[in-house]
Fold these 4 entries.
Entry 1:
Amino acid sequence: MADAMKQTGQEASNAAYGPPPVIGPGHTFASVTEKIASIVLRKGTKRGWMVGFGLSFLGMLMMLNTITYLVFKGIGIWGNNTTVGWAFDIINFVWWIGIGHAGTLISAILLLMRQSWRTSINRFAEAMTLFAVACAGLFPALHTGRPWLDYWLFPYPNTMGMWPNFRSPLMWDVFAVSTYATVSALFWFIGLIPDLATLRDRATSKIRKVIYGMLALGWRGSTRHWSRYETAYLLLAGLSTPLVLSVHTIVSFDFSIGIIPGWHATIFPPYFVAGAIYAGFAMVLTLGIPIRKYYGLDDFITNRHLRNMAKVMLATGLIVGYGYAMEAFFAWYSANTYEAYMYKNRTTGPYWYIYWLLILCNIAVPQLLWIKKYRESTVMLFVISMFINVGMWLERFVIIVTSLHRDFLPSAWTMYTPTVFDFTMFFGTIGFFLTLMFLFIRILPMISIYEMRTMVPEAKLKSEAHASPDKPAMPPAGGPQESPA
Amino acid sequence: MANTTYNAPPAVSGWQQRALVVGVIGLIATLAGYFVDHDQFYRAWLVGFIFVLGITLGSLGFLMIQYLTGGSWGVATRRIFEASARTIFPIVALLFIPVVVGMHSLYHWTHLEDVAKDPILQQKEPYLNVTFFLIRAVFYFAVWALLASFLAKWAKQHDDTGNHSFRQRLADLSGPGVLIYGLTMSFAAFDWVMSLDPHWFSTIYGLLVIAGQGISSIAFTIVIATRLWHREPMNHVYNSGHFHDLGKLLFALIMLWAYFSYSQLVIIWSGNLPEEIPWYLRRFSNEWKPLSWALLVFHFILPFSILLSRGLKRNARKLVIVAGLLLVMRVLDIVWLVAPEFKQTDVGGLWMYATAPIGIGGIWLWFFFRNLQSRELLPVKDPQFEQALVAASHH
Amino acid sequence: MNVNKESNIYGLMAEFDNPTAVVVAAKKAHEAGYRKMDAYSPYPIEELSEAIGFHSNRVPLIVLVGGLAGLFAGLGLQIWTSAIEYPLNVGGRPLISWPAFVPVTFEMTVLLAAFGAVLGMILLNGLPRPYHPVFNAPRFELASRTHFFLCIEAEDAKFDLGETRKFLESLGANEVTDVEK
């Protein structure tokens, strides 16, 4: 514990003495451009990529097969039953949505907080957001049972003369998830425009020039354009920050608005949001550590990035732990029979082992992150983040399945057992996600090139560029107001 | 610059005397109220105490957070947070005594004859009983006092020796410290405020109170920083960048408060369960509805809309008005948490909700200003010190 | 001949290899009275847009308008459908259940504000624009990688092919070239 926070202090003093090591030494405009763009523009494809893509693609095929079968047979092929009406589908939905949140957090919140270390991971994390949301969206869309009628979810004038019920959190979810997907895609695309222009100008083959050129919208780097671009980008970040919090809050409302014991708790919104960030950072590390190694990106995704992410995981993990503690305390303090039974059933009922496995993965193992040595070790970070990925999935299992399978009416109590199609669907979406991820790192720059340019020493303006004195932004009080230094 | 000293300007001792005068007048008025209606006196005292505790502990929390994150806003405001946090012992602890004395008037669960008739209260009895309540209170104050005193002591040693290992120690303590503060404060909020209605519970309640404490402490810090900025030596130090950072924090915190408040409301409103909804029914009754609306408008919508402006956050003269408004709204928010729990037999005693926070606040301010004068206004030996003074001015 | 050539010129493009040089050059050009000019850089440089005299932009206003439109559209949609067009008693909740209408209102506000930011930026910038005369400048493809450019446009009142070229060369440009329309 003692040396746990040592790093913070060192970082604080590092920050004080010169620029933080968010980029390896010796880089120039040309070298960062070259290094990142060449991953995309190289001729031929690495074998490792081909193997990884092939395996992921097989996973995706498994998902497509499951979906096809599901459309023919109905959701009865899953293990859901009348008591446990929500199961793997909603667990996976919440899990994927949560994973997506770290992307927005990194790209928006850290931008607003002027955390320069976000620069080399934001593009990659935003892509992760988009693909995770795509996977998440599949589950409720299929869970409706007749996915071809999903457009009924949206409010549109129809011959039935009906409108959706806006008092239902499931309706809020439709708006939240679709807004989130749209805004994340816009944010991602806006961030890509200048880099697409770089690829257009650097590509040698005609077809690449044309495709990247069209996507770049004719970006030419005009300083007027940059000025509006920066404003729009910052404003999008400002909008995305409350948006990302609202999305998982609304996901938590899906549960807490109802009165099922184990679901109806006011702590749910902040605790779900913290859990989402926790899971999301774990996924960024799970993907980032191997990619960094494979493509030799240590100069751009430095150990400092990994350390900071480890600290964010520790902090959000503790908030999640606070949530568990409050649930446990109030299960007793409420003096409500059903609440108390819910908690007893979680910890000692038929699914007790899932609860304790969850505590192991989400609460016990991540405490290793207090120790500096483990925050420094990529292997340990990878292992711990794998534990968290699993733990966060188990958390949703505990919340959804163990709350539903024994609620108010003992005659309706039952057990839930997943079928093979629950697993093929779940693992299939992992394949789908990785397929999109592999395509992304092959055809688009996975690190924001233009933002990396601002990090290299060359980008620092010399004093003659600052010749005109800053206008005082605040009228002076009693005396000179700007510091003389 | 390194040779400049940053002692508090002489004006501070003047403020200190004035705070004492106001505090004594407020206290005398409130004590007079005791003879009018002592139930009302205890409720008003609880409001004043929770308000002052909010500034103190919110400052303790931010003191630790800025040790963890670094950054210029923290260096520039550290001593103000520290001076607030150092009041936790003895003065804030002493201010708790009337709450203990008035327990029987305030907390329904202390009425053993009623507990005997109420199976739910019987079930809660292992937690909600006088002995354990007092043990917990002593424990909370001990933990907070220890945190504050170690933070203050090592900061002083860092100042005196310039040895950065003390800065390291401060950061080492702050990590677990924030966690400890979050947990103890949550339970203190359950004990002292939530248990006013011993049947009611809300799992987000601790976070809601903590967010309120954050607003109180940042708003208070903005007020003090603006006062200091008008005088030597801080007029050379504070610039629009520092106020911008504080304004952004205030903005984020009122959003957080609104977010927690809304979450609690919509979940309980939708569930509409007999064990939860009465809490809101009381607050949306005709008596308290105007206050509920006032909180929505003046604790959230108005300051939120104003603080959207970048220019305003950078302008201390205007920002301080928003901060002042929010301090008033904090008192009203605590009144909203406390007062509707009681049958208001007589509107006549309501004035004590104004005099008690003024009286307690005045006395507390006297101690705060004493602490502020006892050290330099900036941690001159901090490794980020020089950078903090210039860095904030652009952006 | 000369007249013909001049009428076919979009402007003069000066190339620089570091950010400080282009900011200083832009400042001097602005001081010298040139107004119709633009600078090109591979990443945003705040000082550069200030140097050519571009201070504020209207993107925030568009975002605000978008946000307000979303706010009223979201709230209006819910109130109209739930209370007027299709009134339905759901669990005894009032027809206008304002606590329940907050989430959708919020999402619509953010959605339209984000559209405002993106479309505002793209349209104010006159994008998409696949063809632009500056792309005719030799080596301009470096503007998206390593180099910095300052272009004084022929439309500028003070523009004179010879004089302006001399002026740009005096600013320490690597190279000054004509840009054809």
Entry 2:
Amino acid sequence: MIDLSQQLFEGEFIRLGALEPEKDAGVISRWTHDLEYGRLTSAKPARPLSPAQVKKQLEEQAKEAREKRNRFDFAIRTQADERLVGTGQLEGLEWNHGHAWLQLSLGEAADRGKGYGGDALKLLLRYAFYELNLYRLTTACFEYNPRGLKFLERHGFVVEVRRRQAIFREGRRWDELRLGLLREEWERQR
Amino acid sequence: MMTMKGERVRLCAVEAEPMAEAGARWSRDSEYRRLQDSDPALPVSVAEAREHFADEAPSDGEYHFAIHTLDPDRLIGFVSLWLRWQHADAWLGIGIGDRADWGQGYGTEALRIALRYAFDELNLHRVSLTVLGANPRAQRAYEKAGFVVEGRQRGQNQYDGRRIDDVFMGILREEWKDGT
């Protein structure tokens, strides 16, 4: 029997929730002023954003999600005090192929290494495979982020592509790794 | 001297009207559409195609070219570069529309001209592309042009009830040899 009382959004340390453009924009704006935040997850130039810009972005994402159902965005908040510590995204969904991109970032360096990321990733994976019924997920990791790579591999992601020298930062070239996780692999390791 | 002309084809500016007309015609071939990208194959109307190829001021982020045969002068396809300037990298997409024009070496030649443009005019460090695992003909053409397989996203696509990889390929400036 299926147990529908098993909560999809409740982790051990954190919970996934809705992003609140009004309330969360200030916190996320602060994160963007540390360029490392953007550089860890995106190939786009990292740039500081004002709270108003972040709010606009969040509203646009929500609109796209409503209209196209091609992205699912979550706030990662601590169980203890509901503090926003990061965001998790399943985006670029292709329903015809059962595929999506996974993005996960924690805002403050001080909140990394506490188990929040692993906790959130487990929930995102279950949501992707058992709620959205996807076949596979893809994520990218840059060569200068060995900690991120180890984290993803620990949760079952496999390096599938090494785009050689595709990233130019700090005066040198770095590989962009693409990692994939198939539903059947995730089910086996659960 | 940089030229956009090869022995049998040339690259030129996209003109919205003929490209829209051709694009609508090519979209009726579902194999062409499936090899093109991961969207569901769907015939597009001339009006939709026209919107896609609207005559707009050129953008710094995208370079689109029409592929014409030299003699007779005929529109047979397109090649596009989508840039990531900050990393000197671009994604390349190419299509030869009419199946009667496949396997004639037109794509290979257009690819060579596009790469020369990418490395000698745009000064890129690398060019990237993905090719469907079920499209060995295209993969061979890319390898001939100097692209190297950099990995495969397993089961990225589903067609006809089967899972098919996306093959990732790249060519670095230092690997590129201008054959013409």
Entry 3:
Amino acid sequence: MTALDAQPVAIADDAVPAEARGRRKRPRHVKGTRPGWFVYACLGVVLLASVFPFYWSLLIGSGDSYTIRDPNMSWIPGGNFFSNAAKVMNDPAVNFWVALWNSIISSGLIALSVVFFSTLAGWAFAKLRFRGSSWLLVFVIATMAVPTQLGVVPLYILFSDLGWTGQLGAIIVPALVSAFGVFWMTQYLRQAVPDELIEAARVDGATSFRTFLTVGLSAARPAASMLALFTFVSAWNNFFWPFIVLDRQNPTLPVALSLLQSNYFVDYSIVLAGVLLATIPLLILFVFAGRQLVSGIMQGAVKG
Amino acid sequence: MDWDLVRNSGTFVGFDQYATVLADPKFWTALRNTFSIFLLSTVPQLIAAVFIAAMLDQNIRAKTFWRMGVLLPYVMAPVAVALIFSNMFGDQYGIVNTWLGAIGLDPVKWHSNAFASHIAIATMVNFRWTGYNTLILLAAMQAIPRDYYEAATVDGAGKVRQFFAITVPSLRPTLIFVIITSTIGGLQIFDEPRMYDQYGTGGANYQWLTITLWLYNIGWGEWNFGRAAALAWILFLIILVIGVINLFITRNLVRDEGSRSDLTKAQMRAARRDAQASVAADRAASRTPAKEALR
């Protein structure tokens, strides 16, 4: 299992400076010193806590509307999950399939576009010389401290003037570039591409843009795929702005979920079946890309 | 601005909207709730994250499995988390009250009691973010040079002593970073309180009304855009105080990476000399304590 160990270095290219790689050469632990059962027990409790809500939604979502009030509730899921899920899918007030499609399209487009623009901007900040570049980078980073709430009112007025309210474009267009993405790509490209490589390309007669295409893009690939992953997850889960600007005819999945609970009488077996249904796509993503998410967070932390 | 939706323009009313917001008792309730939920979600979360990270930093089996396990809640949408937990924290049939009953405690009114509702909402935030912050802290722990621990072992310090004397102080910069980012996020909390009941108005007595939730209800419930924008500015000013600190920290991080692209060649040479000198000084300074520890 240690071979699978997702260290930050796992994604490092050959372009990473030697001292960063050398750090891992020394074994971090003396061989054979495994911790005792207590550590595993504590981690087991943590794991249980992070899995339990998923299981709970399966448990309630597979019962009927009385399961939750049953004092002798069974801890084994009942047989109603598929019929509850069908109720969610067929509920005309929720528009589940529209929501699923909207979530896939908007999150996918946002992830692609953020990666595209952030790589371009990150390359410029990291490797090109232009007047005011460091000041501009500080400005971009500073915008991360500005809350979404501040822009929401003017943005809404703008989009209702354009007639975009209720349209999917209203949630895609404001998210096409992100300050975090620019910062992330700048930090990565700065250390991943040695200046000598760029000079060599210049000597060979490559234009600035050609250098970016041949040197920059290939070096940026590991960080870009992680940025795409994180952008996708956060766009998928985003609620505040889509909830404001979209309506119930054309929701994303979180907005559709909020509609499940909006009736006076809330049938939790259906609400939680819907919750599970909306989470399944991301659980599948987690199975395939969870390791990349882990190393992405750890790598981002090292660089700040 | 007193915004007119029909004319789609406004009359300038000076700072009247700000005065109205600040004079409204709901503002102070929302401010109190926001800070209460923020503290209840940040403090226990970071303490737990440090300890879980310390356990993951041990030489455990199946490292990737455990790391992925703590990160699992991160992929669930906050809305989904809120729906599950508002069910678990139900006043009447919630599983949490059933558990409390099983160990002989009275059921807690998770919705009607203000403080209890803050705990429930903070639990949702903690569920989703503890694992994420754990991994950030774990990465920082792995960057601590092992020599420190070896030196401490030679000096006879036990595991617990090493944790408090080496690990925790070394995590300080990362902790500051995590605290600031979770402050900016925590003060904007909306999804969880919005979905804590089906009405989304923050409870009958505004027990869990937060600033952003109130902003939404002013702007898109009362359709009063002018007042909503005023409230957004007040929220921004509250966050700005913390954001300024954030700016300083990120700025330093960027400087450390050191692109001096806008300098002339001579300036770069001078900077390089300075950097070499300071690195040499740093090295000399950092060597001394390690030597002393080994003696």
Entry 4:
Amino acid sequence: MPGLVIEREVLIEAPADVVWRTITEPEHMSQWFADRVDLVVEPGAHGYMQFGDQGGPVVVETVDRPRRFSFRWNYPAGEEPVTGNSMLVEFTLTPEGDERTRLRVTEGGHELRDWPDEEKQRYADEHREGWAEYLDRLANVLAVAGRDDHAAR
Amino acid sequence: MTTPPDDELWSAIADPSRRRVLDLVVSNGDVSASWLAGRVPFSRQAVAKHLVVLERAGLVSRRKQGREVLYKVQADRLDQATRAMAELAAQWDRRLAAIKRLAEAAHAKNKTRRQS
């Protein structure tokens, strides 16, 4: 979705339900995400994620198995996370055949859901030039540099 | 956590409307608030507010020319913001790669179990 801060995706050779379990079950989450995950995957559930000696609360927002899972984090202590004071992480799973799933993740401060479609489109069009493109280029450069680092080792 | 080092910078760029204003300043250079207001779907007051936040975060600077106030981007700060976002993107790439590895391994295991 245009306008969100970060959008990345990956194609996985596994059915959507397997991918769903990998991203939502705490014992799996602790393998790709936080070191320790206390989370019940239900809308509105409050949980906690531990990263090394740091950690923070999370609140589950959407649970639509096996299509969409989202949570909010990075909000001020003592506050409830809402649009504007927190980051929304959203996973979208799209099956491509029986044994392949496209997994997209977005992380952003605001959603554009309330914007009219033509507005989103205009925003996306304008973003092809300017800063967003600059960011994409830089991200590519960093990705290539990262690969080279890896190859050099 | 994924909190980038600089909260003020982050909240300045996390808002899509504000990024739109910033994009216009980036691609057009010395521009006034009223010029910007003519190119976005929100009010002049909203543009002015976004410019205040961007200026406070150090992303744009202002100067007076005659009766106009003109804004331009602060390249160093923009670079810093871009790097913070690129780092966040790279972090998600690493996580997605790990999810892919785990899900594919689980799927392969399920298949073997079904066959045996």
